[in-house]
# Entry
Amino acid sequence: MNNYQLSEKFNEMAVMCEYAGENIFKARAFYRAAELIAALDYELYEAEGDFEIAGTGKGVKEIILDFLNAGSSQSYEKLRRTVPADLFLMLNISGIGVKKLKTLCETLHIDKIDDLLSRAESGEIRQVKGFSAAGEANIIDEIHRIQSEKNSKLYFIAERLFYDAARLIKRIEAVVDVIPAGDLARKLPVVKKLSCAVIYSSALEPESISAMIIENLGLSGCRTIRGEALSLLTAKTASSGFLLDLFLVKSGGEEEKLKKLLAMSEDYIESLSAKFSPPADSSGSEDQTARSLERITAIARGAEEPDFLDVAPEHSEILWKKFPARDLKNIKPFTTDKIKGIFHVHSSYSDGVDSLETIVFKAREMGLSYIGITDHSKSSPYAGGLNEERLAQQAAEIDRLNDKYRPFRIFKGTECDILKDGALDFPDDVLKMLDFVIVSVHSNFKMSEGEMSARIIKAISNPYVTMLGHMTGRLLTKRKGYALNEEAVFQAAKKNSVIIELNSNPYRMDVDYRHFLRLHEMGILISINPDSHSIADAMPCVNYGVNAVNLGGMPESHIFNSKTIEEIEMFFNFKKETALRK
# Structure
């Protein structure tokens, strides 16, 4: 069990404590343990029990050791018996927290998400105190969304699951390499299926390597389809329910081409009239899959040399549909080293964990040339939002740090709330004192498409606004975005020279990469912003944004934070001068 999985277990224990009405300090201790484990720079399973985590007690260490040694914990299982079976699945319903869910489950004797859906569809939810017909309809919509995304995982979670699986598979002596394939290889923000290519010694037969993998991963209910040099082992992982496709590649000289082919999505392989990887439960799909495997093997062995073998697998299906392979070959993937600075960074002035000077110190260590600080505004008290006085104090500290650390540059900004009517949380005489302004929606998500679009358009029409933050408000696999006319917002952004943020927090990835061709066509800049609350998380988030840039085909020239300090200052000065003339 890796640190991420341990951290999730402690988060779950904290939530279960809340639901069961346990001591609030116990829940807080579990939440704190989850944070501390996630922040470790080494894997606990590698420490073999020889570790201490400052800020946690003996009980936490005992639970960690139970998970590491036995895969479970009595403390965890005891709590698990006090809550509904589908507690965590039901908590993915937007607008439903622990208290509201407990009210529903105890009033209607609900244990499973299917029970909740049935009660909602029969009109029983609206009869419970605190719920309405609209809330009931939202529950139905949300459960349908959850069911459609049941086995999906965010990229960073799928990536960790891959490394866990690869580590176990590589224990097999005959295995030469394990590499990502499919959605994971192309680094999609949401991975629907975990696919890996397992390169193994040609001395073994597929049956033998399959048996070894099944034993090492503890898989059951597997389906194996044989090919000449390529076989497919499909199963669901017992721990996560995640659909796992293992492409077994017999070492024989064509591995590099096979790996490239397996990185491609279903759309590409379908364009060759061969289905890449049908769902595990598709009836009568074995023959079709076997033919596809043989076709892939034939291509890898040089029976034909299609253009797409020279195209970077980072590009998405929308680019394939827009451009022929001969043009895509010339589109070089964007890389993280081209990022010169980052914006949308929270400090300890609001809900970030790092002081301004720590952020500057770490950013310089990362090789960045500038950083843009954007703590929350006063209408976000839950996030420690700054009022005018504290914003001025922060600005004064930034001035001192700029003098101390030049030529590194700290740009003064704010993440200013867009209020319900489209007005901004700070007046213009405050905004004009800043270098740049990001505006974001943090409340009143349930507006109609027309109302929400008008609200955002009014906000970005303010001449002091520089960027629009997390445009749709979505949380991937958790919450769909609010209703919005994206084209109307893009037109307003173009008219007002407003940058559209690519919020690269892996839970958001907002704006969606599918809009990038349109933004490029309109000449609108994007900024890969980590929305970081810890500077240690900033660059990993930027990496996810770089993945999205390559999927969407946005060129370097249209990525704002690939520009130099001088170019950034020129843009900010242009915006302020334009605003002052109005």
In short: The first helix runs from residue 3 to 20.
